[in-house]
Amino acid sequence: MTNEGRDDQILQCLGHWQELWEESSIIGSAEDVKEDIKLKYLMTMPEDFFVFYDFCKSLNTTDPLKALSVAGLKLCGPYDTLGNNVPKDAPRSERLFLTHGRYYYDPPEMTTVVCETEYKTGFHIGYLRDAPRDAPVFLVGGIETEGAKLTVLGDNIFAAVYHHLSAKMES
Description:
Layout: H1 3-23, H2 31-41, H3 47-59, E1 73-75, H4 78-82, H5 94-99, E2 110-116, E3 123-128, E4 138-143, E5 150-154, H6 157-170
Antiparallel strand pairs: 1-2, 2-3, 3-4, 4-5
Helix pairs in contact: 1-6
């Protein structure tokens, strides 16, 4: 299968999962996992964050963080915590998690959750909140090599990744 065919397949799956997420009661995860993420990243992650992780597990059961690698993307930031991808020898401190996955121009109200598999432009997607203590309002995309410019991609992670992949296929 060509990369273009695989991109089409991922877009179809994303659209399907987004519909399921919007139509159904939210697929829950263990409260202790949600609390762990909240304590480490100082924000309550929206339900679509956890549903998207389940979606990625359905695409790649052995390594959900790399489920989108055929599209040049990987899960990062708080997903590294869910996927046990934080190095064991990394210093355990509040700073580790608050700066994990951050890019130079990211405002403190942004938490990066998707990035390039290999750094080329510094493209990344993250949840953005109006204030550090608020819940995320939407997701934005940034390209580090273009400076401090963020573009709104959607109100949930399915929409944001779909928007990015659609734009990528058009170019």
